[in-house]
Amino acid sequence: MRYFLDVEFNGFGGPLVSLALVPEDLAEAPFYAAVDCPDPVPWVRDNVIPILGVEPQPRETVAANFARFLARDPSPLIVADWPEDIAQAANLLTDGHGRRFHRGGARFELLPAREASGDLFSRQPHNALQDAIGLREWVQAWETDERD
């Protein structure tokens, strides 16, 4: 199944703040979690932290939960519109010290750069869950337009 990914991080190239994976199948529950961010950059402090909507957890807890979520699907395809989102998600599959949390496979797809993206469909920009839902809606609309 395809999953649409959005990530918020603490400044470009900074540590993960929140991550959402939204299944293409609307009947399936999404994955959404936030990681402890003890020293957010001002922009993240003002625009991301106040709208998380979930309690941040230790990175290892989020990573283990993320791995369990992915393990439900034998061949997940994770779709993103930004390279850093893929990097953050892939990094979350390890503990950073040689331990791999997700033992199964996963494929990543980086969408072509477009003038628009899921941000246009997001009900709450800079909230990873709402942005991932928006990305799913945008991709589905784009694919429908491509077929017509």
Q: CATH class, anyone?
A: Alpha Beta
Sheet-strand content, in percent, reads 15-25%
Q: Helical region count?
A: 4
- CATH architecture field: 2-Layer Sandwich
Q: How far apart are the termini?
A: 23 Å
**Mean pLDDT, rounded to whole units?**
92
Structure classification: alpha/beta
| CATH fold-level assignment | Nucleotidyltransferase, domain 5
**Secondary-structure element order, N to C:** EEEHHEHEH
Question: Can you walk through the features of this model?
Answer:
This protein is of the alpha/beta class. The protein has a single domain, classed as Nucleotidyltransferase, domain 5, CATH 3.30.420. It has 4 helices and 5 strands; from the N terminus they run βββααβαβα. The model has no long low-confidence stretch (mean pLDDT 92).
Could you give a short description of this structure?
Helices cover 32% and strands 19% of the residues. With 148 residues, it is α/β, with parallel strands linked by helices.
